[in-house]
Amino acid sequence: MRGPVLIVSLLLAAGPALALDGATRGQIERGERNPDVIFVPTPQEVVEDMLRLANVRKGDVLYDLGSGDGRIPVTAAKLYGVRAVGIDIDPERIREAQENARRHGVEQLVQFRMDDLFRADFRDATIITLYLLPDLNLKLLPQLQAQLKPGTRVVSHQFDMGDWTPLKTLQVRVPEEHTIYYWVVPAR
C-alpha cells in the first residue's frame, strides 16, 4: 500500500496542471480511494483508429476518461492539433502522462486532471474516449448522457455501453483483436 507521504510527494511533483477536488484529494491521501481498473495501455495503432473513427477535427475538445499514460490525449493533440484533457485517479499515471505530453511537445494543448471519473465535469467535450470495464461504462453512462451535448462523439476501446447501440463498431488486429465502439449523443 502506498503511504500518504509518497502520495503527497507525487501530487506535488505533478505540478500546477494537476486538478483535483478536495474530497478526492483527501481520499487518495488517506488511501481510501484507489483506481477502479488496473492500467492497461491501449496499443498505439488502436489509439489512432479510435481517433479516426471519432472523426477528430479542428476545434474539437477531447476528454479521455481513465487516461493512464496520456497516449490518447497526446496523440490527438499531436496529430490533429486539438485541445485534450485526460482524467485519471492515479497520481503515478498523471505524472507519466504529463511527461509524455512534454516529450511530444504538446503540453500547451493537453491537460491532465487527477479526479474521480464519477465526479468529474466534462461538459465541454466534443469527443469522449475511454478504456474502462463494462460495469464502469454502464455506471458512467447516466453521467455521460446528463453532461454531454447532443452530437458529442463517444469512443470506447474494447467494451460497449449495454443497451446503447453503437453507430459503428471496428475490429482491429494488432496482433490480438481489439474492438472499438462509436456512439453520438442524440438530440434530447
In summary, what is this structure?
This protein is α/β, with parallel strands linked by helices and 188 residues long. The chain has helices at 4-13, 22-29, 44-53, 71-80, 91-103, 134-147; strands at 61-65, 83-88, 110-114, 127-130, 153-157, 168-173, 177-184.
Task: Draw up the topology in text.
Layout: H1 4-13, H2 22-29, H3 44-53, E1 61-65, H4 71-80, E2 83-88, H5 91-103, E3 110-114, E4 127-130, H6 134-147, E5 153-157, E6 168-173, E7 177-184
Helix pairs in contact: 3-4
Describe what this molecule looks like in 3D.
Helices cover 35% and strands 21% of the residues. Helix 6 links the parallel strand 4 and strand 5. The N terminus is likely disordered. It has a seven-stranded mixed sheet, covered by helices on one side. The protein is α/β, with parallel strands linked by helices. The chain contains six helices and seven strands, in the order αααβαβαββαβββ.
Which stretches are poorly predicted, pLDDT < 50 over at least 5 residues?
1-22
Number of strands: 7
| Helix/strand structural class | alpha/beta
Summarize the amount of helix as a percent range: 25-40%
Count, helices = 6
Shape: globular
Kindly provide the radius of gyration, computed on alpha-carbon positions and rounded to a whole number of angstroms: 16 Å
Give the H and E element order: HHHEHEHEEHEEE
| Strand order in space, largest sheet | 3-2-1-4-5-7-6
